[in-house]
Design goal:
It is a single chain. The chain has 655 residues and is α/β, with parallel strands linked by helices. Among the domains are: 112 residues, no CATH class; 250 residues, Rossmann fold; 70 residues, no CATH class. The strands form five sheets. A six-stranded mixed β-sheet has the order 13-12-11-14-16-15, with helices on both faces. A four-stranded antiparallel β-sheet has the order 4-5-6-7, with no helix packed on it. Strands 1-8 form a two-stranded antiparallel ribbon. A hairpin with a 4-residue loop joins strand 5 and strand 6. The longest helix has 19 residues. The two termini are 78 Å apart.
């Protein structure tokens, strides 16, 4: 193959001429030349003695090198020392035998294949043709054509109706044949009326205790066992037919009233009002009209009662299998939500409620055990002290949750929701169970805004809920002392100090604030301002700041206060032995694993009442610590050892 290179004139003055290999003459050969027959690009650089033959590629600006030739000749420095010889007008001819002939042939064939087909007939192509010529800017692109074709989901058939190409995401279902068995068309289970009545009575007696759990609910005919709700029906047609009351043959001329005279009507209305108030409960007396009008409360005293907070509560209830109601051990009855308990009994019978007495280190041990005996009659109750480093009741709570997970063996995992009043320590309990800070906590109410999921183990999930307050008859002072309102938002905090002085013993206040005697709440605040240096300009005492200090100490447990449990002969002698009796009855019916879970829950609750509950030092006197029937509390080292063993068991179960 011969390649012709046109010489460059020497009088251009650009560089010096070099001897081209094999010609014996000097040329300025720095040339691009494209051969149209083979589409080769030839570049000769005689100054360094090279020749390159390349072919253009479909990519812009890229070349495919087919041939590169550099002969052996002296170095460039030696060539530069030779004298300059002017170039003539003749062309140089190079013979390159190393370039094969088939390169040209193959390149021509590939070029013919890549040429676009031209519409010879002159008719425009269809709009759904991918290869049509882009003559207009509004024409459809190839991607648009493919997308439009995707919308055609009809199955393609041949002339005989056989499907050649199925519809999008469809296939022919194989013909099925049902086995001609009598069981497909008969009753699956048959129960006698006497057996059904016996089972219904047993179910009602068992479910009266909150320590029992219904297993395999899907296999039980609960619709037959539960009594249907009685709905009031108006028997108008039974008393008087329609034709006798209306129409041409009517017999009634006066309307029939439920009361014959005015006195009977008043009596009937009074009875219905009493029934309504009894059904409504504690909130029934909110709208009593006694001639007086209460002052409009500030919005801060309605915290925890908004629709958003109640919406978060119902989300947690719907998502939970076990609901743990966290109570303040200083006032368990005051921080209970009876509305929530009634809701679970009426509408969520398959969910389980557990009471958790948090902040048990702020009350004497005998008071904690007394409340455990009282509340255990209604629901399983545990004492708890939330602390990441040194807690109490953690092992017992983990054991109870693990037993609930065993009872719900048909589920992949269970969810445990923590609900209660604001600032009772719901998030702190979750942090204690996880042994690290996973929930945001603060010694002020309203820190948790929305519900959140926390993973405890592979089968147990914890749900944190904002604090919820149900509407009741509590005064503003009661709301403040329960920890619902942030003290910093109070406009006049000194008006709540009188109730604090009435609830707390005088000896405890003297020991806490080093004030010997006072006349009233104002005198107590003045002495506290002088003792702590809370004075304004001119030596005036800052009563508001001193009152907020006392309320902060009240909410954080620095002032000793607690509500003693009711001490009666029946309640003092009562123990959760009934729960053990109930589980013994179920043991005969259920499997050994379920019976063991029932027995474990009852044992955990009963054994915690015999443990030594820790109490903060120097918070109560020795007489107050010994005021109950139990002995004085000691350190919780034994409890910590048991909790560590329980955590090791949990880790083994997870693994």
């Amino acid at each position: 193959m011969m390649i012709c290179l046109a010489p460059r004139q020497a009088n251009t003055g650009r560089g010096s001429g070099k001897r081209f290999p094999g010609t014996g003459k000097m040329y300025f050969l720095k040339i691009w030349k494209i051969d149209c027959s083979c589409h080769y690009v030839i570049k000769a650089r005689p100054n360094i003695g090279t020749l390159m033959v390349a072919r253009p590629t479909p990519f812009f600006g890229l070349l495919k090198i087919l041939f590169f030739w550099r002969p052996l000749f002296p170095s460039r420095s030696s060539l530069l020392q030779k004298p300059y010889l002017p170039a003539d007008d003749r062309s140089a001819v190079l013979i390159c035998p190393d370039l094969p002939f088939f390169f040209r042939r193959r390149n021509s064939e590939m070029a013919m294949k890549k040429e676009k087909k031209v519409n010879v007939s002159g008719k425009p192509k269809h709009s759904l043709d991918v290869n049509r010529k882009d003559g207009k800017s509004e024409a459809r692109s190839a991607a648009t054509v493919r997308r439009l074709k995707m919308y055609k989901t009809r199955p393609k058939r041949d002339s005989k109706g056989k499907i050649l190409k199925h519809e999008l995401q469809s296939k022919e279902l194989p013909s099925t044949r049902i086995q001609p068995d009598r069981r497909w068309f008969g009753n699956t289970r048959v129960v006698n009326q006497k057996e059904l009545e016996f089972f219904r009575e047993e179910l009602q007696s068992r479910m009266s205790s909150n320590y029992n759990v219904i297993l395999k609910e899907k296999k039980l005919p609960l619709s037959l066992l539960n009594d249907p709700k009685k709905q009031a029906r108006v028997h108008l047609l039974d008393r008087e037919p329609f034709t006798d009351a209306f129409g041409p043959k009517r017999k009634r001329k006066r309307p029939n009233l439920l009361a014959a005279d005015y006195e009977s009507l008043v009596k009937r209305a009074g009875g219905s009002q009493d029934a309504f108030e009894q059904k409504l409960g504690d909130s029934g007396g909110l709208n009593e009209d006694d001639g007086l009008r209460d002052l409009v409360r500030h919005t801060m005293f309605e915290k925890g009662q908004s629709k958003r907070i109640w919406g978060e509560l119902y989300k947690v209830i719907d998502s939970s299998d076990v609901v743990v109601q966290v109570l303040d051990a200083r006032d368990p009855q005051g921080t209970r939500c009876h509305h929530l308990e009634r809701h679970l009994k009426e509408h969520c019978t398959h969910k389980h409620m557990v009471f958790l007495l948090n902040k048990c280190d702020l009350v004497p041990a005998w008071a904690t055990k007394g409340w455990l005996r009282v509340l255990s009659k209604e629901y399983p109750t545990l004492a708890f002290h939330a602390s990441v480093n040194k807690s109490f009741g953690k092992g017992s709570l983990l054991s109870v949750l693990r037993q609930f997970a065993r009872l719900k063996s048909d589920k992949q995992a269970i969810s445990v929701g923590f609900v209660g009043y604001p600032n009772v320590g719901k998030s702190s309990v979750i942090n204690t169970l996880r042994t690290k800070n996973v929930c945001k906590v603060a010694p002020i109410p309203g820190e948790t805004k929305v519900w959140q999921y926390i993973t405890l183990t592979k089968r147990i999930f914890l749900i944190d809920c904002p604090g919820v307050v149900y509407q009741n008859k509590d005064s503003e002072t009661d709301i403040v002392l329960k920890g619902v309102v942030r003290v910093t938002n109070l406009e006049d905090a000194s008006e709540h100090i009188g109730e604090v002085l009435r609830r707390v013993k005088k000896e405890n206040l003297q020991r806490a604030y080093k004030i010997n005697d006072w006349e009233d709440d104002n005198d107590f605040l003045v002495q506290l301002c002088r003792a702590t240096g809370k004075l304004l300009r001119g030596g005036e005492p800052d009563l508001t700041t001193a009152a907020k200090m006392i309320l902060h100490d009240w909410q954080r447990g620095k002032i000793p206060f607690f509500v003693p449990p009711p001490q009666t002969e029946t309640e003092a002698s009562a123990e959760p032995s009934a729960a053990e009796n109930d589980t013994s009855v179920d043991r005969a019916d259920d499997s050994s694993q379920v019976a063991a879970a029932f027995q474990a829950i009852a044992n955990v609750i009963s054994s915690q009442q015999q443990k030594n509950v820790p109490v903060q030092r120097d918070l109560f006197t020795e007489e107050e610590l010994k005021g109950g029937p139990d002995s004085e509390p000691i350190s919780s080292e034994d409890e910590d050892a048991k909790e560590s063993s329980a955590e090791e068991e949990d880790e083994e179960d997870d693994n």
